[in-house]
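Our consortium's second objective concerns turning raw sequence data into structural hypotheses that experimental partners can test. To show how far this objective has progressed, the report includes one record in full. It was chosen at random from the queue rather than selected for favorable results. The single chain below, 420 residues long, was entered without modification.
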Amino acid sequence: MSVKVKIPEIGESITEVTLGSWMVENGDEVEEGDILCEIESDKATVELPADSSGVIEIQSEEGSDHKIGDVIAVISPGDGKPKKKEEPNKEDSQEEDDDESDGENQSDDSSSEKNASPAARKILAENSIELSSVKGTGKDGRITKEDALNAAENKSAPKDNKKETAKGEVKDSKEKSQAEEATSSYFSRNKKSEKMTRLRKTISKRLVEAKNTTAMLTTFNEVDMSAVMELRKKYKDRFKEKFDVNLGFMSFFAKACAYALKEVPGVNAQIDGENIIYHDYVDIGVAVSTPKGLVVPVVRNVESLSLAQIEKEIVRLATKARDGKISIDEMEGGTFTITNGGIFGSMLSTPIINLPQSAILGMHNIVERPVAIDGKVEIRPIMYLALSYDHRLVDGKESVTYLYKVKEMLEDPTRLLLEV
């Protein structure tokens, strides 16, 4: 009996998705549980496994848009062609033999096939590119789909950009060779066109919506990070030993923001039509940059978590996000957002509100600057903070008060423990 492969329900608010890469080919024999394809929603990319074994008949192309419940393939009983596998070349086989004779394990490069995603293997095979020649940027050196696309593009790009000289014109061959080498090495006129992913289209839509529908304003302050940096330096080793996680800046900021949000509840509220919804809990979204775009997983009940619990949850969510394994539930329902442009070297920015929230805090890089301390000029590690907020809900007094409370907590981090 044939089984239809349908687009599954991914999340409550998701009604349309884009079919990403097929991991199998038409007529392949698949087994129950095999990953058939990737499905891109406006929040995350998920893998679709086979519900039964048999021969697959693909009925939809990569990049096509579908609604929940659409049929994209049919699996019928019978024997089909086995899925293609990468055949090692003679040189690789010889290297493997040498490794076995020496009694040593293979290196990470010789096991690239195991560290490449199915989509990446398919792209590399279609372009006759050896797995060992591609450097993976994913977790543990895994070759991602983007790595494979870049390798294919580099292979097809012209290596030379030679210019023909006019007929009868005589030039020194050495100068011509040098000019051509310089042109091919430093200049390019290549262009490429890529279809926007559903995630990128949704990000664009939501950012424009936030800009056009809110009365957005940004207020700034600066924080002396000396106390936090000294605390981290003093206890980071013991913290790591006890909790098996690094003590980073984000947990201090998340805890300081949670305390300030409880003190100034309007910043933690949302507009719902003509009503204002106040939350007695603090769910903070932490913006994470991934190869496919910006995602914002949410750390729940930050006000009740310890620094160690916050650090562990941030690491867990960020790792899943970068690996493309984050779920829809883990990105929904935040009441406030923190974004850290400082890890990329940003000195100052005005972050855009993540709707339907009413505010977002922007962190930036820490730079040693001269500041006046008790009438004397001292060099201190200073970070600029930016709070963008919806002026329809948050007044100037509330926004400035909130940001100053965050500043106070960070400049005297013992207050985070005492909650004073």
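The partners drew two points from this record. The longest helix spans residues 226-243. Residues 85-114, 159-171 have pLDDT under 50 and may be disordered. Both points have been shared with the crystallography group to help prioritize constructs.
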